[in-house]
Design brief:
Helix 1 (31-38) packs across helix 12 (471-481), helix 2 (54-73) packs across helix 12 (471-481) and helix 13 (508-523) packs parallel to helix 16. The strands form nine sheets. Strands 4, 8, 9, 10, 11, 12, 13, 22 and 25 form a nine-stranded mixed sheet that branches. A five-stranded mixed sheet has the order 17-15-16-18-21. The protein folds into three domains: 2-247 and 428-481, Bira Bifunctional Protein, Domain 2 (BirA Bifunctional Protein, domain 2, 2-Layer Sandwich), CATH 3.30.930; 261-407, YbaK protein, CATH 3.90.960; 497-599, Rossmann fold, CATH 3.40.50.800. Helix 13 links the parallel strand 28 (499-503) and strand 29 (528-531). It contains 16 helices and 33 strands. The chain has 600 residues and is of the alpha+beta class. The radius of gyration is 29 Å and the shape is globular.
């Protein structure tokens, strides 16, 4: 493909600003953080704040251009909104308070409140409510590629979690939910094209919309070994979800017994000194309580005390949560069930004060506060759990007989659980969220009065959608997915240069052949870097691998004696001999075959 987007500047390594590092920076741990610093793509100014050096800027620009191309093809229109925003818009929707400490707040010289934009739902809604009045002006899809600012508590992973980052955020505006779903589908298709063209291996997963609000939420997760997001995907069908919202069929073995609740004897209190964890409980009962043969973590229940908070009002409540002994609480699912903004586990002192017993001995029997039970825990017949007295546990606990609680899906799905769609086994992956699409509905338009007149002259709220891509995060994500021990292995579409011509020595024929190939590739529209430095071959080869440029052409006296140059792909494989006369044509064809764009 030939495109107008790209760089035509002559680029020789001798003059290029590529400050590589030999040592791994002490504060860098993730592969992308290490390699982007070592290879001279970025430099850190402060925690979570990075400079984009020339190579980094080239990659960032290429990513943004692919995003722009597909957004424009989908009918979206680019604009640019301010990053410095008056507080009044966030106050109008309640997010001035609910967004919390992540919001970068400041005052002007007159004492007025402002903030730096972490996202732009309010501002774009304000623009549309001022300009759009009729159904004839809809649908509308507006997007921008802009810096965002969030005061992350723990910026980490280099560009993966920053306080300042580049983002593409788009917003659709429609006359109805049905029309909004069509816009959503169009954006999903555009995102598929974007992530495919970027050369990334990804899965689309169901997700939670978080502080943005909304529904019909899906994340584009790039699969990596180092991702911070847990993803659950079916081994058979297309079901995939972020672990925070994933669901599974009722766990096999939760109540896999011929015994029914009616057959279970009355509660038995067992003294369990120095026993707190589920594994310790199972071991103790196996050794000391013959009346409970075959006890496993799956036939135990564990109780945890949580404090749920409504950020806007500041109101909080203490809740007892019950899950099966081998399961963990899904805190996002718990938030959703409770209708809370956030939850946290109670401290040991808070547990003792609220329950009258120490952690490890608390349980649902006799508890009179708000009690929520995961469906798998409720299905356990004749469970063992804490007795709310130190140091005791109950045997023969039955939900519905010995305790009652709100039942919901409150546990994290695990590898091997069964798919809710087809029943096949679920598998877990690590991923990095690269994009997020969801329908906002009238969440913001209702609060801000963004309305239109329909065909009958009736005033209605505009239905919105929101679509984000972390542009600078994708730069790091690509490195997380494409690297080896020697350095980066950029996908062709976003590499800072598609080809590096490595010149060995400064003999007249070597210089002439290298310059001929370099100029020929440039004329063909290839992004090419000529390594004309006075360095040893080993240094040049190591730098080329570190930088991650997809194709390397080596021009040296030995190959030239036979009329050839050496050609090698960064992704692997043996070096090939190419005749000098055919080199430009063959290399250009390979650039295009690997997804590269030619700039003319």
């Amino acid at each position: 493909m030939v495109t107008a987007a790209g760089y035509k500047a002559r680029m020789r390594y001798r003059q290029a600003f590529i400050p590589t590092l030999k040592e791994v920076p002490k504060d860098a741990t993730s592969p992308s953080h290490v390699l982007l610093l070592r290879a001279g793509y970025v430099r850190m100014v402060g925690a979570g704040i990075y400079e984009m050096l020339p190579l980094g800027h080239r990659v960032l620009t290429k990513i943004a251009n692919i995003v722009r191309r597909e957004m424009n093809a989908a009918g979206a229109q680019e604009l640019l909104l301010p990053a410095l925003l008056p507080a009044e818009y966030f106050r109008e929707t309640g997010r001035w308070d609910s967004f919390g400490d992540a919001l970068v707040r400041l005052k002007d010289r007159r004492g007025n409140d402002y903030h730096l934009g972490p996202t732009h739902e309010e501002i774009i809604t304000d623009l549309v409510r001022r300009e759009v009045k009729s159904y004839r002006q809809l649908p509308l899809n507006l997007y921008q590629v802009q810096m965002k600012f969030r005061d992350e508590a723990r910026p980490r992973g280099g560009l993966l979690r920053c306080r300042e980052f580049m983002m593409k955020d788009a917003y659709s505006f429609d006359v109805s939910m049905e029309a909004a779903e069509k816009s959503y589908a169009t954006m999903r298709d555009a995102y598929h094209a974007i992530f495919t063209n970027l050369g990334l291996h990804y899965r689309v997963v169901r997700a939670d919309s978080g502080a943005m609000g909304g529904s019909t939420s899906a994340e584009f997760q790039v699969l990596t070994q180092t991702g911070e997001d847990a993803i659950v995907a079916c081994s058979s069908c297309e079901y995939a979800a972020n672990a925070e919202v994933a669901q599974a069929r009722p766990a096999a073995g939760a109540a896999a017994t011929a015994v029914t609740a009616a057959d279970v004897p009355a509660l038995v209190k067992v003294r369990t000194p120095k026993v707190k964890s589920i594994d310790e409980v199972v071991a103790f009962f196996e050794a000391n309580v013959p009346e409970t043969p075959g006890l496993t973590p799956a036939s135990c229940i564990k109780s945890l005390v949580y404090v749920a908070t409504n950020v806007t009002t500041g109101a909080s409540e203490t809740v007892l949560v019950v899950v099966r002994g081998d399961h963990e609480v899904n805190e996002v699912g718990l938030c959703r069930h409770l209708g809370a903004d956030e939850v946290r586990m109670a401290s040991e002192d808070e547990v003792k004060q609220h329950m009258g017993a120490a952690p490890g001995f608390i349980g649902p029997v006799g508890y009179t506060g708000r009690l929520v039970v995961d469906a798998d825990a409720a299905a356990v017949v004749s469970a063992v759990g804490g007795a709310n007295e130190n140091p005791f546990h109950y045997a023969n606990i039955v939900h519905g007989r010995d305790y009652h609680g709100e039942v919901g899906n409150l546990r994290l799905v695990r590898n091997g659980d069964l798919c809710v769609v087809c029943g096949a086994a679920l598998e877990t992956y690590k991923g990095i969220e690269g994009g997020h699409v969801f329908i906002l509905g009238t969440h913001y338009s209702d609060k801000m009065g963004a309305t239109f007149l329909d065909e009958g002259g009736v005033q209605r709220s505009i239905v919105m959608g929101c679509y984000g891509i972390g542009v600078s995060r994708l730069m790091a994500t690509a490195v997380e997915q494409h690297h080896d021990d020697a350095g980066i292995r950029w996908p062709m579409a976003i590499a800072p240069f598609q080809v590096i011509v490595t010149m060995l020595g400064d003999a007249e024929d070597t210089t002439a052949a290298a310059t001929q190939i370099y100029d020929g590739l440039r004329a063909a529209g290839v992004d090419v870097l000529l390594d004309d430095r006075d360095e040893r071959p080993g240094v040049k080869f190591k730098d080329a691998e570190l930088l991650g440029i997809p194709l390397r052409v080596t021009v040296g006296a030995r190959a030239l004696a036979e009329g050839n140059v050496e050609f090698k792909e960064r992704s692997g494989g043996d070096a090939l001999a190419l005749p000098v006369a055919d080199a430009v044509t063959k290399i250009t064809e390979r650039v295009v075959a690997l997804g590269g764009e030619l700039t003319r």
